[in-house]
Amino acid sequence: MEALPFLERFGAVVSQFGYEYSRSDESARQIGRVLAPGAKLSFLVHHAESAIVAATRARLDAIDELLAPGLRAAFCSGDASGFSSLTAALIGRHPHDSVVADLASALPSRLGSPPGKRIAIWAAIEEALAPERCVSESLKSCCVTPSQLTDWLGPLRSACELKAVTVLREPNGTPIAWIVEGIRGPAQAVALPS
User: Fold this and answer.
1) Is the model's pLDDT at 141 over the cut of 50?
2) Domain check: are 94 and 115 in the same one?
3) 49-55 contacts: CB < 8 A, separation 24 or more?
């Protein structure tokens, strides 16, 4: 997004939950460069108060607590009592998280494995959870809060004349996404390289 390969101009730029993950200054310059005058921009951007973001934060908290040094040390050392105590507390804090429940159920039977095997099991768990953790951290850091919105829109304002931003909501009123729309004005035309 920050280095679009196109030399031609386009009649629209659309992003559904993508633009917010970019480096917005560079991406907005590229959008300004490739949009034709009068072209439209339409983005859906993760709202920080959405159910998706809340669920992602809760899951990330559960994963972070699951992978905490104390739980790792208890499992890798074969400390059944300590592991049981820590997993019970973890389940208490995250009673509906499936990964917590699954691992709390599956790992106690492996506490009797040789030390090297326990360490390998824990390393495999960390490796298996790494992609989800990475995606969740990205969503958590890239979603846009109401207090961030004005500054966050700054780079896009240099590329387009933005309409008033609205919020897409669930039937119960919970925000889902920011709806960001605009039109490329002639005053914002950027010369393309010849």
Assistant:
1) yes
2) yes
3) 49/145, 49/146, 49/174, 49/175, 50/143, 50/174, 50/175, 50/176, 50/177, 51/170, 51/174, 51/176, 52/139, 52/176, 53/139, 53/140, 53/143
